[in-house]
Amino acid sequence: MTKRRLTKEDAKKAVYGGCILGGGGGGWIQDGLAKTEEAFAIGAPELITVDELQDTDYVACVSLVGAPSAKEAYTDRRQLVSTVQRMQKEFNRPIQALMTNENGAATTVNGWLQAAATGLPFLDAPCNGRAHPTGSMGSLNLSEVEGYQSIQAFAGGKGPMEVEGVVTGTLDISSNTVRSVSVEAGGMVAVCRNPVSVEYVKEHAAVGGITQAIELGDVFFSVPEGPERIEAVASHLQGRVIHSGTISSFELKAIKGFDVGFVQVDGLELTFWNEYMTAEMNGERKGTFPDLIMTFDAETGMPLVSAELKEGLAIAVISVPKEYLKLSSTMSNKKLLQAIEPIVNKSII
């Protein structure tokens, strides 16, 4: 089926499936569920495939930029919708659909509310089929397009920290500006950015990534609560459970709008930069970003993002080779991946 009205059941599956594909980042389950409740209060968004648009049509990406653990992070419905409206004014071509930047508990459903509010369809092609830390990793390799000018509309924060605006410049400057603004706004801003042609989307995005998240959520809920859920998810994704145990050491620091840290479970060490970057068992590498590394509550089987872990928690960890994921062309861009190494002090390439 190419075109369909999304349902609340789809939304729940998309949030949980998205959370798993978030690989430790991509936002919180409760935020994703709340966001879809708000979307369906407006109307049911429509999911379309890339084949329903012309190659020359333009679609824009919506995302949230900031640190998931920020205490004063705030964005509301008006701000989310205002970024799309501003983009429609600023950009010289009509926007025909919205897409999200990545899969994650909150990010898979990024744009459902904006789609419901504006009447624009939502595209089954996230910029990336898993969550990733930097804006450029979610920018469809536009960083490699000679002379590309990025346009990003943003809004967020409340009270004296409320901010909105638009920035145009190189991809790096625009993305860094928006991230700096997110810190000033209390930790988070809503963004509508970088309109691209459908032809470009087909080449660089994770086509079918929203359906992938919904299907993964379906697998997750088809098994009763408990550790069997983790096994079901791992086998569906063609990955495996690499270890279960109790967290003996956990460290998280908020650095420049990112959550950075490590987790120790027996002989297993995970590093994360919002998302899990490396998994090593007694020094042997078991997963390296963009492979999917994800943590679950060992007893209930519920997915846990990096920011909600703590010492003494019993967790299970899965690893899925990148070959089995729907990924953006950015995930094979060595320059973008190299940026991870100094952050987590591990080799990635």
TrEMBL record:
The record's listing under InterPro entries reads: S-Me-THD-like_C (IPR048350), S-Me-THD_C_sf (IPR024071), S-Me-THD_N (IPR010318), S-Me-THD_N_sf (IPR027479)
Domain called S-Me-THD N-terminal: residue spans: 10-146
Q: Superkingdom of this entry's organism? A: Bacteria
**Which species is listed as the source?**
Sporosarcina contaminans
Q: What's the protein called, per UniProt?
A: DUF917 domain-containing protein
S-Me-THD-like C-terminal domain location is 176-322
Q: Known Pfam families for this protein?
A: S-Me-THD_C, S-Me-THD_N
